[in-house]
Amino acid sequence: MSLKTVGVLGGMGPAATIDFMSKLLKATKAKEEQDNLRLLVDCNPHVPDRNHLIAGGPTPGPVLAAMAGGLERSGADFVVMACNTAHGYESEIRAALSVPFVSLIAETAATLKARHGGIKRVGLLAASGCLEARLYQDAFAKDGVETLTLDPLDQSRFMTAIYDIKRGEVSQASRAQMRALADVLIGAGAEAVVAGCTEVPLVLAWADIAKPLLDTTDILVERTLAYARDGEPLPA
Predict the structure, then answer these.
(1) Is the same domain home to 71 and 153?
(2) What is the pLDDT of residue 219?
């Protein structure tokens, strides 16, 4: 079976995109160089900040749509995006494509249902833009799952940590802060925690918390391989 070419919308931020690519390379377990996937990557850190739109900043939609169209013209058979919050502009991305777009939000919700079907309350570590767009809350609610989020003060701490990570701050202090925020959600009753921002897995691993961690980067890696290499039908 021939391998499909994957278009990657990235750069939001660059370290998270590199983390996705590195994990994809490792998960492929290639015996030969040619067993790896062909990736067409637009790592564009100049996409307008997805969290500043509410404050009157420029919309990322047209930039993301242009990037997606460029990946298709370059030969991508389908497109993925290594950023959760930017899925708030999914409709504009899809409108620019005639090839499938794989939604990280939909894939995470499907993974939660398939592997943790008994869970009814999840904690969500996600950027403010993602929360305000209700990307995960609405997706999980379709399966009867309640989403717990941080209170405004802890959400502010979370956003500070995310921007620190984007600047390359992945110290033990950053790791401790993210674990503490995950523990807040677990203390509030979360039966699992969703790393709903691709910066989170840079400082938080499944072994760091007492409940299951759904790492959205890992989910995107798994589903990218399934569609590009293993022959699973792409979503419509």
Answers:
(1) no
(2) 98
